[in-house]
Every structure is written in C-alpha cells, then in structure tokens.
Specification:
A: 5-stranded mixed sheet, B: 342 residues, 6-stranded parallel sheet, 12 strands
Chain lengths: 470, 342
C-alpha cells in the first residue's frame, strides 16, 4: 500500500475513535463512577440515619406506651393490652411487638402483634414493664419491639435506586449533550481542518482559505479553533510564498550550475587539446630523433603519460559527471592506446577486469599514470616474443573503503635480485611515488609466473570538489 | 318499680327479683322491674328516666346501685312525688345534695339502704386467711399469699369491698396481698383473672372474689390448675347467693359473705309501709345498713334451706300495716324462719 493510500485508512481509524466518542465515554464512566460513589455514600448515610431514627422511635414508644402497658398487663386487661400493642404495631417502624408476662420467676409470651423478624434483620429493644402497686414497684413483664431493618434496607435501596437511575439518566443526557456539542463545535471543525491540511499542496498560489463549518465570525467572537484556522491560512500563504521563492532560487542555481558545467567542460576540452598538442609536438620531436632509441622511448613514455592524463579530461568533459571518471571505460581506452602505440601491432592479449566504478579525477589520474607505467613496462619487457602473453588489469573495491589496482603479466618476470623500488627505472619508481604520495596507498609486487603489481589505496582520499546539487 | 343492674349470665339479680316478687305477692304490690347493663351508665341515666316518665301510677321506686346517677333519678321521681329507696353506697362523685342523704334536699327520697361493703370484704378475707393459716400454709417464713378478684371499678362498692380485703391483710401479719384485679363481675372474667393470677403468683393460697359468680369462676381456674379448695387454695365470694351457697355447701368454695337476699324484701316492706302511711324511719332510720352474714361449709345449708322456703314466707308478718304496729321491725334469720309457713 502506498503512502497515499494509507492516509485515508488511518484517518478512518481515527474517526472511529473520535474525540467526541472518547469524551462521551469518559463522561459516562467518570459520571457513573461518581454517581455510584455518591449514591453509595448516601445509601449508607440514609440507612444509618433511618436506623438511629427507628432507635429513637422505639425509645419514644417505650416511654409513651410503657406505663399504660404495665398497667394493663398488671390488671390483666387483655383488651387494653392488645389495643396498645396494635397501636404500637401501627407505627411504621414497628414490625413485631411482644409482651412477655412475668409468672413467678419465669417469663411467658402474653400477647404479640405482627410477624417476628429474624435477629439479623431486626432492630430490637426490650424494656421491663414495671408497675407501682401498694407502694411497691413490681416487674410485671417485658416489652419487646422489633423494627424490620430488611424492610428499611429495601426502602432505602428502593429510594436510592430511583435517585441512582435519575442520576444515571442525567449523566447520560449530559454526556450526550456534551457529545453533540463537542461533535458540532469541536470535532466537525477539527475534521474540516484535518481535511484542509491534507489537501494542501505545494504551490505558488495560496488557493482557498480554510473556513470552519458552523462558524460565522461576525456572529460570535473568535476562539481557539478560529485561531488555529487563521494560523493554518497564514501558514498556507507563507508556504506558497516560500515555495515560489524556492523555485526562483532553484532556477537560478540550475542556471549557475549549467554555466559552470559548460565552462568546466570547456576547460577539460582545452586541457585535453593542449595535451594532444603536447603529444603531437613530442611525436614530431621523436620523429626527428629516430636514430636515438632512448629519446624515442622517452618521448613515447611521456606521450603515454600525457595521454593518460588527457584521456581523463576527455572522459570528464564527455561525462555528465564532471568530477568522476568511469574507470572501466577509462582503463579500456587507456590500454588500447598503450598497446596500439607501444606494441607495434604485435601486442599481447590484454584482459580488463574493472567494474563500473566512478572515481574522482584526483584519484583517476594517478591510477591512470600507474596503469600506463606498469602496462608500458610489461609491453616493453615482459615478453620475449612479440604478441605472446597476457596482461591483466583489474580494479576492485576491497573492504573498509579501500580500492586495489592490479596489473599482472605472465611474462619472464623480474630478475631475482631486482629491487623494484631501488633498482627500477624512473617509470617504475614513479609508480611508488604516485601510489604512496598522491593516492596515499601501498605498492606490493608478487613474483612468480610473471609479475603481479598490487596497488592498494583509499577510495575517498579526496573530497568532491564539484557539486551539481543533485 | 325496681331498677336493678345486670351482667352477662348473672345469677344474683334473678334471685333478688325472686325474693322481691315473693314479698310483693304477699304485700299485694305490683312489681315492675327493669334491668340495665352494669357498664351502661347512659342507659341508666336516659333510658331509666324515659321509663319513669312513661309509666303512670307508680307508687314507689327502689333504685339498686345507682352508679353515680342518683340525682337525675331523684329529680325525676321528685317531680311526681314518688317515694324512693336508693341502694348505696353513694359514689363520692355524687353532688352534695345527694351525699347529704335522704330526706334532706329530696323529700321523696325516703331511705338509703346499703350493705356494709367494706366489712363484707374484710370478713371474707379474714375467714379465708384464717382457714389457710389453720391448714399450715404460713408455717415458717412462708406467708399466706392473697389475691383478689375485684368488682367493676365503676361501682363504688367494689372499691369498698377491696378495701375490706386490704384491711384484713394489714391486720394479719402472716398474710400478704399480692394483687387485686378489677373485673366486670362475670364468671368467665373470674375464671380468666384467677388463672392469670395463679400463673403470676404460683404459690397463691387465698383467692378473694368480690362476688359469688367471680368466686365460682376462680374455683374453675383453680381446679384447672390442679388445686384443691380447702387444701391448696381457699376461695370465697361476696353475695350469699343461692348458687354461691351451694358451692360452699359442696366444698367448692370456702365461704360466701353478704347480707341475705331477704334484705331486699325488707326494703320492700319499708316502702310498702311508707306508702301506706307507716313511716319506718322513726324506728330504723332513713339510712339502713343491712346486716352482714357469713356462710361457710357448716352454715351454708341453713341459708339454702331458707332461700328454698321463700315462697312459704308470709312477708305481711314483717309489715306494721298488718300487725298494727305493736311490734318493732324484726328481719333476723330467726324471724324469717318463724315466718315460713306462717
């Protein structure tokens, strides 16, 4: 999926978990939790208050009914006792009331009204019934009253359930109202803003400004969303303006680079031509000294070195890249030139094993001179019979940013006591000098069936000096 | 005419009527009786007055137990100059002109007769306690535990009877009164209260009852509790009624104490003589206290036999109208016995 395709999907996912929905959920959860906590606290508080009220009511019942009950029990006034108990039982808090009459040292249930309540669900009070008779206080029985706490719990729970339900409904309605308001006042403007931002394209024309839905600046004061919209519109304007300025600068830069490239190619071309002139002049001089093989060889070697340098310049001005030279093409052309000019038509076979590596011309020129020296030396001295043997030229990248240039032949090889650094000609000595000083590398000679020169050097010894802004 | 109270399943007042009717028959009196529920003061007040106003040719009236409504009855009879006997005791709440007594504010109020209610209560208690002590109930540190089944508290006599009980217990150091409970006179009430009292005070020895009906109810409760009268418990009532006497005679009750039912015939004789111009007051006074009699197992039969002979008594022999006034009034038991078959 492309980046362009994934954006709507991400946008859709974001819409499914919209701000309003999240806020709605938060209000519902927080509101419900708080409501539940408040209702719970109120439940406990109400229950305890009602319980204390019942306790006080039972005390009041004892105080108000006790004397009359004592008298009626003492006088065996069953009707009056029953009437009083029924009167107590009519009180809303009371569920069961019982009179236990004292008979000798024992107590027996005399009268009861209502249904007894299990002790765990009852608030019970018992009080002795005493009656003064003939100046003596007699304990005639015991009044036991039970209030039904289970009924109280049901009443409190029922009452608070109504409160809880109404509170829950309030929370839901408030949350829904918030959902609608947030949806209308925040989410829709934000979505519009997001769509607008996604639709912004780089252009020198600012285009249409962002307008938020449902907002009339003339009808209400600006708020944060209006500020965001205004900032986005200003940003879009500045973006268009900056984009235009950048395009202008880019055009100017391209023009400048093109002009520089033209000049550089012209420079490379003229340098190459000048070197060709020098080569021609050397050829003319060499023709005048055809009887002197040393001079002729000197001229030929010099021509080869200059050609190697001029070939670099030729490759540079022919290339799009004015600082790098394709080494495969360069070394192929260079070896063709060397075999043509030095082997007199009986050149050995030349094998080129160079990948398409582009090196800075600061590196390519020393490499070309080294190849020129080593291939020239092989052509001149390695093979006893003309046209025989093979010269192999290779270049490859080693590890850690290092390059290795190899020039090998399968000729007669170097004498055993020959020291290439000390005993060699000027040309081979220059190989060491160029490799070590200009390339920052090392030279290694392997002897065997022929000679194998190994020149190792860092690839990035020189910095890029020509940039094209690409 | 006679106004009497009544209660549910009452056995006392029918006997009173029987005595009165026997005397009325001998004295040639047409007797008109009216009963009113003991607890219905309104009926006593209004219905009684309606009856009085609706009757003509009434020569005299006896109002039994006026229940604090004496004054309107006296006023009603005074308007028609009907001589009236009132049975006491008078309530303390009666107005002063009533409490001043007969023949003062109301001239037609010729007499107030009453039994000695306090004495009756005291005498019954003394007999019951005495027999319990003789049976050895109060040996050692034990005391005779006494409970009382009182009468209707709306009748002042109930209070006096209970006060007699209290006096007897106070006078007897070996007795201890546990409780006196007011009732509405019925036998069922006596039974219920006695049962409850025996439950509350398990070692009760004496059950004092304010009437024979209450005492018979108490006897049933005691029997249900497994108690034997004369051995475990001693029970007595106040009425000297025929039924009470039979229970005493059978040993089911220890005693019954009251004025004999014949005392009502005595009042009828006084009224008869007064209507016929022979005033009793100079001899016996206007406030007459009927004598208190005690019937135990030994004497109950005597009263029963006399009651059985009521129809054989010639009540004219007690009236001065028929003996010429030569002798004084004599309503002793001996006189009644002498009058049988006379």
């Amino acid at each position: 999926m492309s980046r362009h395709d994934s954006a709507p999907a991400a946008h859709a996912a974001t819409r499914r978990r919209g701000l309003a929905t999240k806020l709605f959920a938060v209000v519902i959860v927080v509101g419900s939790t708080l409501t539940a906590a408040v209702v719970g606290i109120q439940l406990l508080t109400d229950y305890e208050r009602e319980r204390r009220a019942i306790g006080r009511a039972l005390e009041a019942i004892e105080a108000s009914y006790g004397p009359a009950l004592s008298r009626s029990v003492f006088t065996f006034d069953t009707d009056q006792t029953r009437l009083l108990l029924e009167g107590i039982d009519l009180l809303p808090q009371v569920r069961y009331v019982e009179i236990q009459e004292r008979r000798g040292d024992d107590y027996a249930v005399l009268e009861s009204v209502g249904e007894p309540v299990a002790e765990e669900d009852a608030l019970s009070r018992s009080v002795e019934l005493e009656h003064d008779y003939d100046g003596e206080t007699r304990t005639v029985g015991e009044l036991r009253i039970q209030a039904d706490l289970a009924r109280l719990r049901r009443q409190v729970t029922r009452r608070l359930s109504v409160i809880a339900l109404s509170s829950a409904a309030q929370v839901f309605l408030v949350a829904f109202l918030i959902l609608l308001l947030v949806q209308r006042l925040i989410v829709r403007p934000l979505r519009r803003t997001a769509e607008f931002v996604r639709s912004i394209e780089l252009s020198e024309e600012p285009g249409a400004a962002l307008t938020l839905p449902g907002r009339e600046p003339s009808r209400r004061g600006s708020d944060e969303l209006d500020e965001i919209a205004s900032s986005i519109n200003q940003m879009k304007q500045r973006l268009a303006q900056t984009y235009g300025e950048l395009n202008t600068a880019k055009d100017r830069l391209h023009a400048a680079v093109e002009e520089k490239n033209i000049l550089l190619r012209e420079l490379y071309h003229r340098t190459k031509n000048n070197m060709q002139v020098i080569i021609s002049m050397l050829a003319i001089k060499a023709a005048g000294a055809s009887d002197n093989p040393e001079i002729e060889e000197l001229v030929r070697n010099t021509e080869a070195r200059i050609y190697a340098m001029s070939l670099v310049h030729e490759k540079l001005y022919e290339s799009q890249d004015l600082s790098r030279v394709d080494m495969r093409e360069y070394i192929e052309d260079l070896t063709v030139f060397l075999t043509d000019s030095l082997a007199n038509g009986t050149a050995p076979r030349v094998e080129i094993d160079v990948p398409n590596i582009a090196l800075l011309f600061d590196t390519a020129i020393p490499c070309g001179i080294i190849v020129t020296e080593l291939v020239s030396n092989a052509l001149q001295y390695a093979f006893s019979a003309p046209g025989s043997g093979t010269i192999a030229v290779g270049l490859r990248r080693e590890e850690a940013g290092r390059m290795q240039l190899t020039v090998a032949d399968d000729g007669g090889g170097l004498p055993e006591d020959f020291d290439p650094r000390a005993d060699a000609s000027m040309g081979l000595k220059s190989v060491y000098s160029i490799a070590e000083h200009q390339l920052g590398g090392t030279v290694q000679v392997e002897r065997g069936d022929g000679v194998r020169w190994l020149v190792a050097f860092p690839e990035s010894l020189y910095a890029e000096r020509v940039s094209y802004g690409q | 005419m006679v106004f009497t109270p009544t209660t549910e399943n009452n056995t006392y007042w029918p006997q009173v009527y029987k005595v009165l009717e026997a005397a009325a028959a001998d004295l040639d009196i047409e007797l008109l009786g009216h009963e009113f529920p003991v607890e219905d003061r309104y009926a006593k007040h209004t219905k009684g007055l309606e009856i009085l106003d609706g009757l003509e040719d009434i020569d005299g009236a006896i109002f039994m137990v006026a229940f604090g409504q004496t004054k309107p009855l006296l006023e009603a009879t005074a308007r028609r100059d009907i001589p009236v006997f009132i049975q006491g005791p008078l309530f303390e709440t009666e107005p002063a002109e009533v409490r001043s007594g007969p023949r003062r504010r109301f001239e037609n109020w010729i007499g107030l007769f009453s039994e000695a209610e306090t004495e009756k209560g005291r005498r019954l208690a003394e007999i019951l306690i005495e027999q319990a002590v003789e049976a050895g109930v109060a040996e050692g540190d034990e005391s005779v535990r006494v409970v009382g089944i009182g009468g209707d508290r709306t009748w002042y006599g109930s209070h006096e009877r209970a006060e007699g009980l209290r006096e007897a217990v106070r006078n007897e150091r070996q007795a201890r009164l546990k409780q006196v409970v007011p009732t509405t006179w019925t036998e069922a009430e006596g039974r219920r209260i006695a049962r409850r009292l025996l439950e509350r005070y398990p070692n009760t020895s004496v059950i004092w009852a304010a009437s024979d009906q209450l005492a018979i109810g108490a006897y049933r409760a005691a029997r249900e509790a497994g108690l034997t009268v004369g051995e475990d418990v001693w029970i007595g009532g106040l009425d000297l009624s025929a039924r009470g006497l039979r229970y005493v005679d059978e040993g089911k009750l220890t005693a019954t104490v009251a004025s004999p039912l014949l005392g009502y015939a005595e009042i009828l004789v006084y009224l008869h003589d007064y209507i016929h111009g022979r005033d009793f007051a100079p001899e016996v006074g206007a406030e007459i206290s009927l004598g208190v009699h005690t019937a135990t197992g030994e004497t109950a039969e005597q009263y029963l036999s006399l009651y059985d002979s009521i129809d054989a008594i010639d009540f004219r022999s007690f009236s001065k109208l028929y003996d010429g006034g030569a002798n004084g009034y004599d309503f002793s038991l001996e006189a009644y016995r002498d009058a049988v078959g006379r």
